[in-house]
Amino acid sequence: MISGRRTFELAGRWQGDHHDGVPIFVLTHRFDDGDVPPGSAQFVTDVDDCAGQARTAAGDRAVMVHGAGAAQALLRAGLLEEMEIHLVPVLLGGGRRLFDSLGPGHIDLELVRRLEARYATHLRYRVRHSGTRPAGHLDRDTNNVRAR
C-alpha cells in the first residue's frame, strides 16, 4: 500500500502493520535519517519510485492508496487507473481536499460503479489518460484512492 505522510502519522503509523504484513510505502517530501518507520513501512520521497516499489511488492495484487496528498501526487504523475471514493453525508470544517493541487487542465473520469448504502455512496471511477501512461502505473480502487 501507499500512504501519504500525514495519513501515516494520523493513523499512529499503523504500528508498522496495516494489513497483516503488507508493505507500506510512505510518500513524503522528506524524512530524518534517524526516523525509522516501524514494521514493514518505509519512507519514499519520489512518486515514481514509490509507485514502482509498491507495484513490485504487490505483484498481481492491488495497491491501495491512503491520503489525499499521496492520491494527488499519483494523479498528477498519471499513475492511477481507478479511484474509489466513499461519499459520506457529513460536512467537515477542515482537512485536505482530495482534488486540490492537481495543476492546470483537467482529469477525465468515467463512472464504473456506484453503490448506494444507508450511510455512504461508493463511487468507482476509471481515470481516463490522454496519451501514453508512464511505466509502473497503478490502477483499481482506493480507500481514498486504491490502485493496482
How would you describe this protein?
The protein has helices at 5-10, 47-58, 68-76, and strands at residues 2-4, 24-27, 41-44, 63-66, 82-87, 108-116, 121-128, 145-147. With 148 residues, the chain is α/β, with parallel strands linked by helices. The strands form two sheets. A five-stranded mixed beta sheet has the order 3-2-1-4-8. It has a three-stranded antiparallel beta sheet with strand order 5-7-6, with no helix packed on it. It is globular, with a radius of gyration of 15 Å. Residues 132-137 and 139-148 have low confidence and may be disordered.
Work out the count of structural domains.
Answer: 1
Main beta sheet strand tally, sense and closure = 5 strands, mixed
Q: So what's the CATH class? A: Alpha Beta
Give the end-to-end Cα distance, rounded to a whole number of Å.
9 Å
Mean pLDDT score: 85
Number of separate strands: 8
Class computed from helices, strands and strand pairing: alpha/beta
Shape: globular
Q: Helix fraction?
A: 10-25%
Total DSSP helices? 3
Radius of gyration: 15 Å
Helix-strand sequence: EHEEHEHEEEE
